[in-house]
Amino acid sequence: MNAFRLAGDITHLISILVLLLKIYATKSCSGISLKTQELYAVVFLARYLDLFTDFISVYNSVMKVVFILSSVAIVWCMRRHRAVKRSYDKELDTFRHYYLVGACFVFALLVHEKFTFQEVFWAFSIYLEAVAIIPQLVLLQRSGNVDNLTGQYVFFLGAYRALYILNWIYRYFTEAKFSRWIACISGLVQTALYADFFYYYFLSWKNNAKLNLPA
Amino acid sequence: ITSPSTKDEL
Fold first, then answer.
1. How many contacts (CB atoms, under 8 Å) link A and B?
2. Residues of chain A above pLDDT 70, percent
3. In this predicted model, what pLDDT tens digit does every residue of A23-58 receive, in sequence order?
4. What is the nearest CA distance from B8 to chain A, expressed in angstroms?
5. Which ipTM score applies to this complex?
6. Closest chain B CA to residue A167
């Protein structure tokens, strides 16, 4: 465990806490893409299949359970909770995310570290996580103005993978046998997808103005 | 000990 990775995991946890805060405090999920939340639930369920087979550390197991439970809880809440689901932008959140799932799964069947059930699902979850934010970014573009908590949620979500890239660089130089090229390349694609959001987020922070993305 | 292929990252 190095500082970059710990900072990345904490930033990831913060993004989830900010989203939970927004939904429970405002009893609203306006501006949040249900499709992105569903994709994240699939990402964690597909990636943490080794939860009961490979014990790495208490920290590792606890964080896996937290990520799985929180992502499923958010999807459940946006689908079932009466007040919350009324505020869901159903007509704006129309990205066909099933195509993303299919494409990532086919790609994982082609490109993986080992052709085993667990490794293929791990690669699938890495690819899917890289593109899971797309429905959310499309929704933000369509809804124009972004409320503070939603903006902070997306910002922390993007920042966590950027910190992981620093972690992979650090591990590459400090560990002889470290090669995580699938995660590294996907992580770069994932962070690049946030580039324009980060740009407008920085501008809004610098000018102390409301964050609004050009349509 | 964890084999190198074990995913130790979240």
1. 26
2. 100
3. 999 999 999 999 999 999 999 999 999 999 999 999
4. 6
5. 0.88
6. B9
Residues of chain A with pLDDT under 50: none
Residue A163 backbone phi and psi in degrees, to 5: -65, -35
**pLDDT for the residue numbered B5:** 53
Which residues in chain B are contacts of A184 at CB distance < 8 A?
none
Q: CA A128, CA A40: separation in Å to the nearest integer?
A: 8
Nearest residue of chain B to residue A64 (CA atoms): B10
Place of tokens 């009466």: A82
- Å from A208 to nearest chain B CA? 34
